[in-house]
Automatic annotation (TrEMBL):
Protein's GO biological process: amino acid transport
Domain ABC transmembrane type-1 intervals: 18-210
Protein's name in the database: Ectoine/hydroxyectoine ABC transporter permease subunit EhuD
Localization per Swiss-Prot or TrEMBL: Cell inner membrane; Cell membrane
UniProt KW Ligase keyword: no
TM segment ranges: 20-46, 192-210
Chief location of this protein within or outside the cell: membrane
Organism placement in taxonomy: Bacteria, Pseudomonadati, Pseudomonadota, Betaproteobacteria, Burkholderiales
GO cellular component, one term: ATP-binding cassette (ABC) transporter complex
């Protein structure tokens, strides 16, 4: 009897193993995105600083990160930092690399949003004698963040699809686990097909979540402008 191209029984057997690896992938993506959106906003604010010795080094750092491959940055953090006395686990290193790399891109998105806030709003905040922190929190960010949410969501999906690079620093994420299963059983169709389906489904879920968040922010901050 001819062996089926896709063995559903074998797929069911490996599903729990792939599920465990999927948790690692999702964890790395979510934590990396938290780092990216937080650090990206810091980079954007520093680049807008009127102090040249703050804005220029930040701009150079952002452009350097954007101009070098993510994989090289992972290797640097994983193999060089221990020589400097900083030892991190592979997953922590991967999260840091993903977050730092995408923070550089998120900072440009934030910068566009910040520059889109009408200057008159800042002048009005100054006239009301608001502190810089209150101006940022109550005037600038509520207007700058909602329009850039779709772009940030795109980077979330892109980061999720970049997680297979974590295998280069010994993190057993989803794709790496499927390769291990394939090399053990010599059946690659099932694990790789399932990995593709997982990536597709979670990317669609992430895109849907971003659209919902965008709509929610429009309702909350719709009257800000």
């Amino acid at each position: 009897m001819t062996e089926p191209i896709f063995d559903w029984s074998y797929a069911a057997d490996i599903l729990p193993t792939l599920g465990s690896a999927l948790i690692v992938t999702v964890q790395a993506t979510l934590l990396g995105m938290v780092v990216a959106v937080t650090l990206g906003l810091v980079f954007a604010m520093l680049r807008r600083s009127p102090l040249v010795f703050v804005s220029w080094p930040t701009a150079i750092l952002v452009e350097f990160i954007r101009s070098t491959p993510l994989l090289v940055q992972m290797y640097f953090l994983f193999y060089v930092l221990p020589n400097l006395g900083v030892s991190l686990s592979p997953l922590t290193t991967g999260v840091l690399a993903l977050g730092l790399h995408y923070a550089a891109y998120c900072s440009e998105v934030y910068r566009a949003g910040l520059e889109g806030v009408p200057r008159g709003q800042l002048e009005a905040a100054t006239a009301l004698n608001l502190t810089p922190w209150r101006t940022l929190r109550d005037v600038v960010l509520p207007q700058a963040i909602p329009p850039v949410v779709p772009a940030l969501g795109n980077y979330l999906v892109a980061m999720f699809k970049d997680t297979p690079l974590l295998s280069a620093i010994t993190v057993v994420e989803l794709l790496q686990q499927s390769k291990i299963l394939g090399s053990t059983s010599f059946r690659y169709i099932e694990p790789l097909t399932m990995v593709g389906v997982f990536f597709l489904l979670l990317s669609l879920v992430a895109a849907w979540g971003v659209r919902r968040l965008e709509g929610r922010l429009r309702i909350v901050f719709g009257g800000t402008r």
